[in-house]
Amino acid sequence: xxxxxxxxxxxxxxxxxxxxxxxxxxxxxxxxxxxxxxxxxxxxxxxxxxxxxxxxxxxxxxxxxxxxxxxxxxxxxxxxxxxxxxxxxxxxxxxxxxxxxxxxxxxxxxxxxxxxxxxxxxxxxxxxxxxxxxxxxxxxxxxxxxxxxxxxxxxxxxxxxxxxxxxxxxxxxxxxxxxxxxxxxxxxxxxxxxxxxxxxxxxxxxxxxxxxxxxxxxxxxxxxx
Length: 225
Known about the structure:
single chain, 2 helices, Porin, 12-stranded antiparallel beta sheet, 6% helix, mainly beta, 58% strand
């Protein structure tokens, strides 16, 4: 006679608590989203063959951020989450065939290394918990961020890339809560799109080729609660 396998719920009273705490680790893939300036467009139009034209393109780079979790139950399937943290990024823009003071042209990569204090406020909509100790969820909200690091690509004022040190992003994603006997593990994929223009106008050709820069991330986040 076949025996039915019996499996119990791990941490059965978890959702009855109003507040939960935890921490997270994340590896984002990050880049600038570029809108070129009219000066750049005029340069391209004046040289259709592209022989003397400088090309400007964003590069994709990895980063890292970590922080704490404060989760507050609002309704049965809806939670509010405050997940402050610190992020380390190195976003780059490649300038191909860039003119130099010597009169020559060469390829240049400008990198902004950032140490960001990030303060995401999110809503989490979760599915009903199943007998297999797993459930899916959706998350979304806003993320203010302040750059405590260097907002310049170098010390040469005439040839640097300069960005703002404050950003506000909209974030959304999905994940799965996995309940173990002593903790909850939640891997999550989250998308982040900056809303504020990071470009700062100056006399550098590197900033003058840009009209708008916004930050964009795709992150794998591992929560432990």
